[in-house]
Amino acid sequence: MATTMANLPLELAHFNNFKQYIPGYADMCEKTIKTLEALGMIEVSTAFEQAISNIGKIKVISEDSADFADGSDAKYTSVRESNLTRPSPRYSSEVSGLRNKTGTLRVQCYERKQKKFYYFKIPSEAYEHCRGTKNATLEIPFEYDGTPRRIPRYETVKQNWWNYEVSSFEEMAT
Asked: Model-level pTM greater than 0.85?
């Protein structure tokens, strides 16, 4: 899928956060990479999988149910404001496309107000209730100032995704 120019800054934020982990990156021409970035010609999701594979030493298989041979899947997401389904707006990060996923989710989350990245390793049993939903998504909540909402606002929350936060890209990838 092509990157829209409106989404390009978010895509590049993700790419620039992990590009040093891409195999052979240190030997690549920086000018060429910058040109490809500006044109939206870098497939960030594929590069993300390769970076995880390189650090985690797991083979990329790119199947419908999993991205990696260990059954896990790579997801990157950005926090955004949404009020489509609720009377009051929310500030959260949506992890989508879970319907056919069967293993651990390796998630990189970018919060744009504070320009910070968060990492998660979410086991399949934690999100299995999401796979049967209409949109097959999960939402990682944030406060409107960009800080993580680590304590759920409502008692009815089925899963606190912050319980699966890890400290770094490296920890997420291994």
From this structure: yes
